[in-house]
Design a protein that fits this description.
The protein has 9 helices and 8 strands. The protein is an alpha+beta fold and 187 residues long. The two termini are 32 Å apart.
Length: 187
């Protein structure tokens, strides 16, 4: 997904504002397995996925708990760093070789003060991320693991082909064996 499409999906900007925003965005590439963001650090960049897939995870004891997947068009950021300039709690790992668009948070904060349209774009970005988080939380609370898996297959069918099952099981809050049983029942 192009940077123009990503920007427009968040909030339509006038051409001048969009050009100013794009001047602050650079394309970067990282290999599969790269940890893009680390927990317990103030992260200074936001990313948008042009090509590839990523996951957010946190540690619970020695186990990694996956709670988010991002793919083409998605935003990758530590909301705690973005909103409050505080250390985040998540690690973001790239699950494929990725091409990303990078935007320095300090540059974006400066643009918020200079351009009302970009400030509204940033507000809309935060609102969209909040809604996605809320949907994941509600799903986790009210749906069974089978229902969550079924929804994942409907909304992100390619995810099953691109992500290791151990990460999908963790995301669903179940064991790999439970995921295998659910998959067998669906077939």
């Amino acid at each position: 997904m192009s940077i123009d499409q990503i920007i427009d999906n968040i909030f339509q900007l006038p051409d001048t504002s969009k050009s100013i925003l794009k001047e602050n965005i650079v394309e970067v590439r990282y290999p599969k397995g790269h940890i893009l963001l680390r927990a317990d650090r103030i992260e200074s960049n936001l990313y948008f996925i042009h090509k590839g897939i990523a996951r957010a995870f946190a540690y619970s004891g020695e186990a990694e708990i996956t709670f988010w997947f991002g793919r083409e068009g998605d935003t990758v950021l530590s909301m705690k760093s973005y909103v409050e300039n505080q250390k985040g709690y998540e690690n973001i790992e790239l699950l494929e070789d990725c091409i990303l668009y990078e935007l320095k948070a300090a540059h974006l904060q400066k643009l918020f003060l200079e351009d009302l349209h970009i400030a509204n774009w940033g507000r809309r970005l935060a609102e969209q991320e909040l809604i996605k988080t809320e949907e994941r939380l509600i799903s986790r609370q009210v749906r069974t693991a089978s229902e969550r898996y079924g929804q994942l297959v409907i909304v992100n069918p390619d995810l099953i082909q691109r992500v290791q099952l151990v990460h999908i099981a963790s995301y669903l809050g179940i064991t790999r064996n439970s995921l295998s049983r659910i998959r067998a029942e669906i077939r």
